[in-house]
Amino acid sequence: MAGFFIKSNAELLAARGLEPGGKAQMFLDAQVVKATEPYVPMDEGNLKKALGTAYGSGEVRYNLPYAHYQLHHGRNPGTSIHGALRGRKFWDRMKSDKKEQLLQMLAKMVGGKAGK
Fold first, then answer.
1. Is 12 inside any structural domain?
2. The model's pTM
3. Which site in 57, 60, 62, 81 is 20 to 30 Å from 33, CA atoms measured?
4. Does residue 59 belong to any structural domain of this protein?
């Protein structure tokens, strides 16, 4: 009688890069930063340059004291000479526009399918 071996949950997750801080999280963080860039308000580019994200953390951070203000109260989108997408609520607008695309890319990367 042949036996069989069942991998642990941790081994299964690691095989696809899905462990905390693993390849999948690092990939997603990088793609989110890339997708958000055209939406980030820009005058001189200081906010864009102040990206303080630790890839693999699952958090996107901008390390300037006025980042929160820009997110919620900055210029209306379409009023920047640096691009029509740039302006307040940049995070929410990027998610609305790019969420499905990001999920598809992540699913492909880990060998799965994105669904609703």
1. no
2. 0.83
3. 81
4. yes
Rounded distance between C-alpha atoms, residue 93 and residue 96, angstroms: 5
Please give the residue range of the domain that contains residue 43.
Answer: 17-110
Rounded Cα distance, 88 and 70, in Å: 6
The verdict on residue 85 lying in a domain is: yes
Q: 107 and 17 in contact (C-beta within 8 Å)?
A: no
Query: 64: burial class by Cβ within 10 Å (0-12, 13-18, 19+)?
Result: middle
Token pair belonging to 89: 């609520």
Residues in the chain: 116
The closest of 66, 29, 62 to 48, measured between CA atoms, is 62
Within a domain: residue 5? Answer: no
Contact status, residue 70 vs residue 88, Cβ threshold 8 Å = yes
pLDDT at residue number 4: 84
Number of structural domains the chain divides into: 1
